[in-house]
Amino acid sequence: MTTDPQLQPVLKVRNLAVQFPTRTGVVKAVDDVSFDLYRGKTLCVVGESGSGKSVSARSVLQIVDRPGRITNGSMELTRPDGSVVDLAKLDPRGKQIRAIRGREIAMIFQEPMSSLSPIHRIGEQIGETLRIHFGTPKDERRTRVIELLKQVEIPNPEKAIDRYTFEFSGGMRQRVMIAMALACNPSLLIADEPTTALDVTTQAEILALIKKLQAEYGMAVLFITHDMGVVAEIADEVLVMYRGKVMERGPVEQIFHAPQADYTRMLIGSVLKLESKAEIRLKREPEAIAPELLLDVRNLSLTFPGGLKAVNDVSLTVSPAKRSVLSARAVRARPRWDVVSCVFTIRSKAPPISAARTARSSTSALPRARN
Ligand SMILES: Nc1ncnc2c1ncn2[C@@H]1O[C@H](COP(=O)(O)OP(=O)(O)O)[C@@H](O)[C@H]1O
Ligand SMILES: [Mg+2]
Fold it and tell me: Which pLDDT tens digit goes with each residue over 116-166?
């Protein structure tokens, strides 16, 4: 797709076909798909659910779920030593593909817990990848893991290394998974909807992180998403899929400004529709009378004992109709949290006292409130 003849693609996929035999017939999950991946560049594969994005990506690593199998095509990987191997021809359980998985090609998923263990400390898990692929000795592993945690911008990496995954938020777990993926300095990173389960702010942070690390490591990225907004953020090239087939492919500018396929126009249209709804909401007249407030939180900050800021200067209001939300939140607060500073102001007449009690009684650490 890139026209520069000097650039050799890291991965060259041609006419890939993957089929699932079912009782009612054969499902062509991937049907004649071709693409190239280049160092330092991101190819976004976009399409609605079931269009064959994940199966295409999993084929590269030879991890297609049974009874699916690659029925046609080639996937030529250029290795760091310049040799070329056709991944389509490798035995899915063989030594060769196992040496490539995780080392030359790493993959991250939508759900970090699908590749992270809940019972091992994160340092052990990332270190294990280093031990398996490079035989790195224990003390060196710790130094390298701390370095990786720093690179993925996890606060206090010296302490975080000994924590368990359940102690992290979704965004932080995604960072741990990225650190694990980067441990062996892969030439290709496959990211299958890694930001889909995250809120928009965390999603933006993770996308920025992947972009930054790609620039540092110079890897090729195959990024799968169903979201054209994400495509606009991260793609250099785009491959649009529908029902296993490639509908369109080209540079990101072309896809957005001169889409050729009706299907691409429809995908872009669905994003624009959402944006226009937001505009309508913004244009709405403000409510004439301000609703009576049950709770008015100003400048709330929560810090974990290790120094990690869980909440930083947050202000919010709760109207009487949303009282149930308030108690749910209060219950979730753990005594371990250290409230740095917060101001609770109750402005309602009848229920305010009980609301204040709910907040205090269920969160023993909370009432270190000032004012
Ligand atoms: N384990 C499976 N068994 C049978 N069919 C499957 C299996 N996994 C995927 N498929 C088929 O492949 C199609 C594409 O799936 P997938 O690549 O996961 O879609 P997506 O674009 O949402 O990632 C599905 O619609 C389904 O028909
Ligand atoms: Mg998928």
Answer: 999 999 999 999 999 999 999 999 999 999 999 999 999 999 999 999 999
Question: How many domains is the chain partitioned into structurally?
Answer: 3
**Do residues 147 and 275 share a domain?**
no
- If we measure between CA atoms, which residue out of 18, 39, 8, 352 comes closest to residue 222? 39
CATH of the domain at 256: 3.40.50.300
Residues 188, 253 within the same domain: yes
Pocket of ligand 1 (CB under 6 A): 20, 27, 29, 47, 49-55, 65, 68
* Sole residue written with tokens 């649009």: 240
Last residue of a domain, one of 148, 180, 212: 180
Give, using CA atoms, the residue closest to atom 23 of ligand 1: 54
Q: Indicate whether 11 and 145 sit together in one domain.
A: no
Ligand 1 atom with minimal separation from the 51 CA? 21
Q: Which domain holds residue 193?
A: 1-104+184-284
Ligand nearest to the CA of 46: 1
Q: Do 75 and 11 meet the contact criterion of CB atoms below 8 Å apart?
A: yes
Q: pTM here?
A: 0.75
Q: What is the largest CA-CA distance in the chain?
A: 76
Please give the distance, rounded to the nearest whole angstrom, from the Cα atom of residue 143 to the centre of ligand 1: 40
Q: Which numbered ligand comes closest to the C-alpha of 65?
A: 1
Atom of ligand 1 at shortest range from CA of 244: 14
- From the list 210, 223, 209, the residue with the least C-alpha distance to 44 is 223
Report the separation in Å between the CA atom of 41 and the middle of ligand 1, taken as the mean of its atom positions: 26
